[in-house]
Amino acid sequence: MKQFFKFVLATVVGIFAATIILGVLSVFIFAGILSSASEKSTPVEANSVLTLEFRKPINERTPNNPLAELQFLGFEEKNLGLNDILANIKKAKTDENIKGIYLNESYLASGQATTEEIRNALIDFKKSGKFIIAYGEVYTQSFYYLASIADKVYLNPQGFFELSGFNSEVTFLKGALDKLGIEAQVIKVGTYKSAVEPFVLTKMSDANRLQVTSYLNSMFGHFLDGISKSRKINRDSLFSYADNMTVRYPEDALRLKLVDGLKYKDEVLAELKKRTKTDLKDDLNAVNITEYDSAPTNGGADKEEENSGSSRNRIAMIYASGEITGGDGDDNTIGSDRLSKALREAREDDKVKAVVLRVNSPGGSSLASDVIWREVALTKKVKPIMVSMGDVAASGGYYISCAADSIFAEPNTITGSIGIFAVLPNMQKFFNDKLGVTFDNVKTSKYADLGDISRPLTPAERAILQNQVNHGYDVFTGVVAKGRKKSQRYIDSIGQGRVWTGKQALKIGLVDRLGNIDDAVKAAAKKAEVKNYKVVEYPEQDSPFKSLGATFSAQVKTKLLMSELGEDYRYYEQIKQVKGIMRVPQARLPFNVVIK
Questions:
Q1: Pairing state between β 329-330 and 333-335
Q2: From CA 47, how far away is CA 84, in angstroms rounded?
Q3: pLDDT on residue 540
Q4: Which parts of the sequence belong to the Peptidase S49 domain (predicted)?
Q5: Among 26, 69, 376, 432, which is least packed, fewest CB within 10 Å?
Q6: How far apart are CA 238 and CA 292, in angstroms?
Q7: What is the pLDDT of residues 211-240, one digit of tens each?
Q8: Which among 219, 508, 165 has a CA at the least distance from the CA of 391?
């Protein structure tokens, strides 16, 4: 009995302690939410420098996360989306308190088109006459492309400068599947539809190597052109430097005029103080872009008021970011239900005069893509709709774009990949030989168990599925032909799953113009014949209360995995995606292409 009371007492104490801990955590969490909800503006002192530093992937929109300040509880710190990065650079252009921009060492893990958008915003910023200074201990090619527009580019005297060309890497899973006794049964349309290759090959096919070589050279050519123009260095010389890896030491970068000086950070800060007329003994007035996001514009207007425009004339900015799936999706995936609802709301709102669909997607479910395409086509009938393509708008991402009035892409956007495929696993050997598991069944009809993973497809079943995929491709090329006002035969000739850059896509008629988000918005307003307008964003972002527990646990889990796996975390992500790809017809980009 004595032991019993001990256990009871221990249990009561444990429950009491857990309640207190949860209560304290709740106070912190809700305090963070309330603090964010009543966030005060950040004061910007005179003669300040805006610091830009990008060390995390950049999303299309800033996440709606009022818990960002609670990093000690496992929540991510605030990470601005591309929308707010561009808005803040634009705000700084006319802010009398901001004298210039300091580009600090950045890894720029985001795509090429995202970097292009930021680079163009910085070029526009320089029109104000304000300075941009860049410094890095390590210059990756992406960061250097961004920094090359700066008035002065400085490299640490013992730093590293990368200029070695672009590399595209694909991870192949066939060897692993063979060891497990799993066969990937592929049904596809398109010579270049290489998304299935990692399941059935151990290296690139000749057709895939041809297309990757083509779009990679196009992207690298644009990269060289941009640096050549900003640094006034001959393009062929730049190519030679990369091809021969001429830049091996900081002194090489200085000698070849790729940088303006070799300086330590204290020397760069001293120059920034000089440019802002700050005494060397005083601290530099600097504000990072995350803090600056809550700073008022000149005259005290906040960010919301700055873009107020006319309440009666609105341009809807609808974000379609991530893989395309059925259902609601979330802020990082395109759910056909959620995005269709956003398109309907914009279409039926009389205050919305035009729509810009911002697409950054490798594609996904062909059915979900068609559901979204239908809403785009219906919207086009009643008001202008433009598409602005981000890093990727390929396969299903192109499917949902093709019905728009006009398509804008960056020169280094990845697009096209018009094709359909399906992958069904045959796990018979895995179950039988690896696990010793066997199956038996009774069925009423010949094809009642079609797609069963415990056995291979029969020739008749494969023929049925191939016919369905062929039909899907015919529908895909048909909607593209109608949207682009081309013959279906022509679309098939440039389709076949082939991937193009935005620059290449312009030449073959898959896009209408090379331009950024702002260009698409201006074009939409012009077609709608409105001059004074407000840009409103759709769909509404997820409430932090909706997924509070899931967000917390997911972030902790992700951090633990990333700390253990490091750069290999992307392979884990790739394996997770296999389940979603198999068994469902897909209109998506070649599987996990990595460009370095």
A1: antiparallel
A2: 22
A3: 87
A4: 125-277, 379-531
A5: 26
A6: 36
A7: 999 999 999 999 999 999 999 999 999 999
A8: 219
Residues in Cβ contact with 5 at an 8 Å cutoff, skipping those fewer than 6 apart: none
The amino acid occupying position 337 is D
Q: Computed from CA positions of residues 367, 368, 370, 371, in that sequence, does the dihedral angle turn out positive or negative?
A: positive
DSSP string, 402-445: TTSSEEEE-TT-EEE---EEEEEEE-HHIIIIII--------SS
Query: Catalytic site residue 193?
Result: yes
Q: Which residues lie closer than 8 Å to 448 by C-beta, 6 or more apart?
A: none
- In whole angstroms, what is the distance from residue 281 CA to residue 274 CA? 11
Task: Specify the pLDDT at position 541.
Answer: 82
Ranges of the chain with pLDDT below 70:
1-40, 65-77, 298-310, 542-596
Q: Are 501 and 412 in contact (CB under 8 A)?
A: yes
> Looking at residue 545, what is its pLDDT?
56
Read off the pTM: 0.85
Which pLDDT value is given to residue 279? 92
Beta carbons within 8 Å of 422's beta carbon, 6+ residues apart: 186, 187, 188, 465, 468, 469, 583, 584, 585, 586
Annotated catalytic residue: which of 336, 395, 406, 417? 395
Helix/strand/coil (H/E/C) assignment for every residue in 461-487 = HHHHHHHHHHHHHHHHHHHHHHHHCCC
